[in-house]
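Everyone, describe these structure tokens:
***
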Amino acid sequence: MSPRGFEFLEHTSDVYVRAYGRDLAEAFEEAGKALFAVLVRNAEVSEPKREVEVTARGYDRMSLLYDWLERLLLVFQLEKLVASDVRVLRIEEESGELVVRGRAVGEDYSPQKHVPGIDVKSPTYWLMEVNEGPGGVELKFVLDI
């Protein structure tokens, strides 16, 4: 397995993603990049013109992943930002819950530049996994389309 990345797995009706990294932060970054790759087919061509701060919270790693993906989806839907890069600044525990703080980096959606992908309604807990081991962290999740 390469140190970090994401891939799409087979699923009959939704988008099933496997994202991985050397640690939880890298895996969360790759999960965010996968989300934007679904929303905009050529999200990687977005230039780093604007950054949006993203903070997500959860009571465990799965709820943290769900909230992270949901908040990144809102960045696309409400802020119209197409992120070519997703950065996790830190993941920490605050007052008994997990918090991830990061940034989505990219540019405003442009129909002349960006190729629309698939409309994502929401992340789901269906088939969600957070696996941590000596080889790194693997996340699996389904995006409801």
User: Anything to note?
Assistant: Strands lie at 5-9, 15-21, 50-58, 81-94, 97-108, 122-133, 136-144. The chain is about 25% helix and 45% strand. The first strand starts at residue 5 and ends at 9.
